[in-house]
Amino acid sequence: MAEQINPWSSTPKMDINRLIADFGIEPFAPVKEKIADQPVFIRRDIVAGHRGYDAVADAIVQKKPFHVLTGFMPSGHPHFGHLMVMKEVVWHIQQGGKGFISMADREAHAVRGLSWDACDRYAREYMECLYALGFSGEIYSQRRNNALKDLAFEAATKVNFSELSAIYGFGPETELAHAVSVSMQVADILYPQLVAGVAPTVVPVGIDQDPHIRLTRDITNALRMFLVEDRGTHISIRVKNAPEGALDAVAKRFCGAKKYEGHIDLPAGHTADEVDAVVREVERAFGGFGFLLPSATYHSFLQGLQGGKMSSSVPDSLVWFDDPDKDVKKKIMGALTGGRQTLEEQKKLGGEPEKCSIYQLNRFHMQDDDKELAGMCRACKAGELMCGTCKKETLERVRNFLREFREKRDEVAHMVEW
Ligand code: TRP
To answer: Is the pTM of this model over 0.70?
Structure first.
């Protein structure tokens, strides 16, 4: 049976290839070819899977409008584990996307029990980090966003408790506010299309967030008034839930449309996408949303410095952006590596960078130069580069990064407001 993904669990044990097979997530490799100038997370296959990313890749290539949105639960200080998703958002904005960030204070309050004040304090830190990395666009707090709350309510009309228990394992003991926070996240993902126009939307997330993406895509379909299908010989437009007059309005938009009770057939010569775009316009004219299915990218997780997962409950597993220098040193120098038991063995057999938290830290964030990274990998495997030296060099890079990052954070701190 397919393993369930629980986005709120602290120990998601996930094999990305199995998830691709079990849940119908698409592997990223084929769509990767469309991107000419690939950032680190694409060219090094850190982004491993996606849903519907072709629409976004095409928008990038054709310089058409698209949106990028992700969310952060402000339930603790931001740390290195958040850096990937932040970089993905910023990169998409640089490619022409309109940027949005949800500060998921309602989720933090409902699921983690944080006070609103604490949410605001942590949210501020996330916002500084995002601006320091070059974010521009809209950052909002869920609880202060009325349009979002209305959209969440509308989305909630399309989901029932048996679906929530099938997707998230919710039971009779689950608080209603937890379920409401799910509809908030669905609304987050659709929000850019509500306020900035219907367009492909990419949601960069860790693979643990896929249940939310699946649910949102289901709800997006459920919110549609019509179903457009390519039947080979013709295009069929079928009413799902449309008000009086909407079907006539659709029929008027096409020559040669044959209208029946509850559906229209169009002769060949149109693509389903073209027809769907017109139908979505009519939906909006009749008070609907006409949203496009949102897309997502899934990145693999940066391994913790102690070998397992990065987790705020294991303080030495990760570096916080605000860690004092001595803690950064202790964590990096004490990290679990892919080195051997003894120096002799390491010289003879070489290290194992695939298993090494320090190598992975370089691969994700600390070494953007592919030649340098390949050199490091080769020297490690050949038994020429010892862990002590490698850690020292990495610590230097981490310190430089943190120094610049903190300077930038100070410079942008004034931009943070609700
Ligand atoms: N649930 C996400 C988390 O646990 C945060 C989040 C809220 C989010 N809204 C979102 C992520 C919208 C992506 C898109 O971190």
So the answer is: yes
Q: Cα separation of 107 and 149, whole Å? A: 13
Q: Compute the distance between CA of residue 70 and CA of residue 405 in angstroms, rounded to an integer.
A: 21
Tell me how far the alpha carbon of residue 214 lies from the centroid of ligand 1, in angstroms: 13
Q: How does pLDDT run across 222-244, given as a tens digit for each residue?
A: 999 999 999 999 999 999 999 99
Cα(317) to centroid(ligand 1), Å:
22
User: What distance in angstroms lies between residue 72's CA and the mean position of ligand 1's atoms?
Assistant: 5
Tell me: the pLDDT tens digits for 317-367? Answer: 999 999 999 999 999 999 999 999 999 999 999 999 999 999 999 999 999
Task: DSSP letter for 233, please.
Answer: S
Question: Which atom of ligand 1 is found nearest the CA of 72?
Answer: 5
Task: Give the angle 257-260-264 at the CA atoms, nearest 5°.
Answer: 40
Residue 260: helix, strand or coil by DSSP? strand
Q: Measured between alpha carbons, how far is 254 from 265 in angstroms, rounded to an integer?
A: 10
Q: Rounded to the nearest 5 degrees, what angle is found at the Cα of 296, between the Cα atoms of 417 and 304?
A: 75
Q: Are strands 226-230 and 234-239 parallel, antiparallel or unpaired?
A: antiparallel
Looking at ligand 1, which residue's alpha carbon is closest to its atom 11? 71
Cβ contact 303:309 at 8 Å:
yes
Q: Who's near 145: CB < 8 A, 6+ residues apart?
A: 191
Q: Is 83 a residue whose pLDDT tops 90?
A: yes
Residues in contact with ligand 1 (CB, 6 Å cut-off) = 7, 70-73, 102, 104, 107, 185, 188-189, 203, 205, 209
Token pair of 278 as six digits: 């017109």
